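Quick board copy: two proteins, each given as sequence then tokens.
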Amino acid sequence: MKIATYNVNGINARLPVLLRWLKETAPDVVCLQELKTPQEKFPLQAIVDAGYQAIWHGQKSWNGVAILARDTQPEETKRGLPGDPEDEHSRYIEAKIKGIRVGCLYLPNGNPAPGPKFDYKLNWFDRFTAHAADLLTANEPVVLTGDYNVIPTELDAYKPERWVNDALFRPESRSAFEKLLSQGWTDAVRKLYPDETIYTYWDYFRNGFGRNAGLRIDHFLLSPQLDKKLVAAGVDRNVRGWEKTSDHAPVWIELAD
């Protein structure tokens, strides 16, 4: 099974890019972030015509997450992250697909830090970590993937010294990510490529992609049941170079049956 994650940075604005990528790579499952569209304006027919069924949690102008599955309907298991009924951001959706529970997340950016937005990021992270712990106790195969907005280590940033005061790289964010991993999750890309420079995001400004001045902030975490089934992982870096593309590139893993 091939599972991908892609922060599309506006699904309707980037729809030609998304459809081209789906046609060329045909992942079995796709998690999307930053839909930036209300629920009723999700381009479902175009997705269906491409061979996928979908569930999504839209939000006008901001956020938004979706899970697509090729030739099957995702069975939704959760919409929104537990722990704060006042939080109306569309940042988490979860489904069962062919025996695997897939959580798709768009973790808050948190800038400027310190400040209320950073506090919200850390609070969201705490809630997500608690939910992840609950998922592990169910003793079933789980993938938690999406835009984590966390640079885990210096290897994951071009010139990391420039990011020391950024919410993505502050010690609190990195510590939260480490705490999550310590529950027993596997960082899939780092398991296969422990020492390689791999980026998933390049800023539009200052020719970030051309200079390969990137970040690795889109991650796959695997439960112990899937750790040994991981056979491949990668970044479809070329997609970042397409016209009118997102500032993220799709990231994918392959799991043995």
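And the next:
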Amino acid sequence: MAVYHSMSSIMVYTAVAVALLLWYGTGRQPLAAVGAFAKSLITSPKYLLFFLAMLAILLLNKYELKLEALFPVHYDLTSSIVGWESGWQGRLQNALHSDALTLFCSFFYLVVFQAVMIASIGIYTHAGNRKLYYAFCVALLLNYLIAVPFYLFVPVNEAWSVASNVHFLMLDVFPRFETEYRHLSGLDNCFPSLHTSISVTMALLAARSGNRRWAIFAGANAAIIVFSIFYLGIHWFSDMIAGLCLAGTAAAIGLKVGEWADSRPLAPDKASRKWPAAASRSTGS
């Protein structure tokens, strides 16, 4: 039942998903949102600054496994943090397992999760909702910034690698997961669950967007992601609880910063700049 054979195939699926989500979230053809985003980056230094800050933290996460090599730890906190859970995910898998459900959950975990991140930027930009754009950038940055120290110094292994009755169902649809995807997420990078925290963060922000269609989809996506991390045999309940706490914190701070940033210009946007003479005439001086 292998569907994904490489990261390239996942990137193709993601690109298609982003285009569909932009169309769904804006009601316009996807290039309209892309054009609005490109224009905002060019005309607004603050817009660009927030985007670059978000990219920087994403790059940090990409190289997190290399950071682990610089700060090696020689202990395992899996049993201390999640030892009480007793591999309940295996019972969930036995009760619900089907090829269709495995494919559905893996699609949301691998493709839709990152497609919603990308599409959110385009949707908020297209709507002219800069407050939510800034909030999104800050909230995403905080998710990674707070999670990385836990991954470095609080090692918790994925459920399937610890509990013998839990199976890593991702391999049914993506047999090369360990060689193609694992470098993005270490085996002991479990606590907190970033898939939970980021998907719930996106849902909380979408609920404030005024875009009902997008809010409903983002909420459904978060619910499916949370279910998928258990069904696929990856995360523990403790990871999810920590992820929810992280999501609430990141979204709340992001909204506060977004409101502040939207009301205090870092520098005048090119589109609103006036020549001194024109400014004088407009004020009657």
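Board note added afterward: Confidence is low (pLDDT under 50) at residues 269-285.
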